[in-house]
Amino acid sequence: MFEKNTSERVGAEQTVPDAARSEQAAVSIRHLSKSFDGVEVLRDVDLEVREGDVVTILGSSGSGKSTLLRCINWLEQPDRGSIHIGGQRIGVNDAGRPMPVRELARVRARTGMVFQSFNLWPHLNVLHNVTEAPIHVLGKSKTQAEAHARELLEKVGMSPKADAYPSTLSGGQKQRVAIARALAMQPEVMLFDEPTSALDPELVGEVLSVIRDLSAEGYTMVIVTHEMAFSRAVSDKVVFLDKGLIIEQADPETFFTNPSTERVRKFLEREES
Amino acid sequence: MSNWEILWSARDQFWSGFFSTMEIFGLSISAAFLIGCGMLYLLEGSRPRLTVPLRVVIDGMRMLPFLILAYLLYYGLPAFDIRLDAWWSGVGALAVYHGCYFAEIFRGTRLTFPPGQVEAAKAHGFTKGKMFFRLILPQIVMQTRPLLGNQLIYALKDTAFLVIITVQELTAAANSLSGTYFIPTEAFIVVIGFYWAVSVVMEIIIKQCGRFSAKRGFDNV
């Protein structure tokens, strides 16, 4: 199903200039602030992710990039500011009060999240990890969910392991299943929280290549990562966070070759050495 | 007639006591399991006002001798105009008592449940109830399996206390036969055999279940 509509999107990306693309924001973050025990981790962050865009968030550890990502699907609740997903505000309803849990769950399901530590459900096999939420959250039929799950497992190269349990998989395989699991919810935006940071170096490539395929298919993605080359290759926009502030956002070419701040220049130098 | 022959001729009494014990045991541990699951669910975050009273109930039960609880239900409740017959008092006491133990076993394992899995469930749009029944509870039960098996054996042995509130179960049968014919040794040896046999069968079943969870990487059997 999305094969068809993504190929249209890929075509559109190649021919239509940036400015003419859909102006609707997949994710729109305004004046976001968050502190833990009096320490400000995010300070008045504004960020716009357009439909079809891949945004990577860089920054040294403790800069607040994971917190920013986790605020998008309300795993962390910001102190101030607002987040809209596809035009709908998350976490707070129209009356300005905390969202009822069911409504929150529905908005959350419009995003898909991939975690650093995979977080697969170990009592379910690979196929059932992928079908669990579509069946029990979206109310899909079992046959429908399984057919879709098998397609997605094929896409991430995990079809042969459909009946295996997570404990028997390598880290890279687990992460690919976790990506299929998130995709199965047909989210409008995919959130990746350091998807390769827990992997052995030789397993990083297989996960990055899956994410790269998704970007080619036109998925909207926000990726927190430490992989510079990957960020440069895959991003439409690179965002740099430092002590809770976005101090630079630019297209990857500008960001990596001609950053405007000294802080980013130093960060890139250190990464290269 | 030798003592053993006497017991053989009275075997119907043993069998009826045995089936009565198994009935009480089956019913009360099923109820206890449900009580344990229910308490675990109520202990799941976001209800701090419930947590403290529940912990008090659980700990209070665990620190109470089982026999006192059985006495309380059978002899004490009539003072409040609640009359349960001996059988239901026994089943009720076992269910509540072991339910609290189940709850404590579950709670301990719940504390070590990886928070990442809960986050993944939330991120995939799960609400609390579905998350609990689909993702948390099945894993907790699989992980606590050896402890639950142990608790089942305790519960089986506790059924013997019910002889004191006049429930006609296995120990009561042995008691009555030993009193009638003055052959306590043989009568109680037979009863021990019954309790052992049931315990061994339970152990085997629990071990078999281990294969199921070993396949999922929960333990190495």
What is the gist of this entry?
Chain B: Keywords: Amino-acid transport, Cell membrane, Membrane, Transmembrane, Transmembrane helix, Transport. The complex is a heterodimer of chains A (273) and B (221). Chain A is of the alpha/beta class and 273 residues long.
Describe what you observe in this structure:
Chain A has 2 domains: about 1-110 and about 190-270, 3-Layer(aba) Sandwich (Rossmann fold), CATH 3.40.50; about 125-185, no CATH class. Helices cover about 40% and strands about 25% of the residues of chain A. Chain A has helices at about 1-15, 65-70, 100-110, 125-135, 140-155, 170-185, 200-215, 230-235, 250-255, 260-270; strands at about 25-35, 40-50, 55-60, 80-85, 90, 110-115, 190-195, 220-225, 235-240, 245-250. In chain A, the strands form 2 sheets. A 6-stranded mixed β-sheet of chain A has the order 6-7-8-3-9-10, with helices on both faces. In chain A, a hairpin with a 2-residue loop joins strand 4 and strand 5 (about 90). In chain A, helix 4 (about 125-135) crosses helix 5 (about 140-155) and helix 5 crosses helix 6 (about 170-185). Chain B is an all-alpha fold. Chain B contains 9 helices and no strands. In chain B, helix 4 crosses helix 5 and helix 6 (about 115-125) packs across helix 7. The radius of gyration of chain B is 21 Å and the shape is flat. Chain B: Pfam families: BPD_transp_1. Chain B: Keywords: Amino-acid transport, Cell membrane, Membrane, Transmembrane, Transmembrane helix, Transport. Chain B: Its main location: membrane.
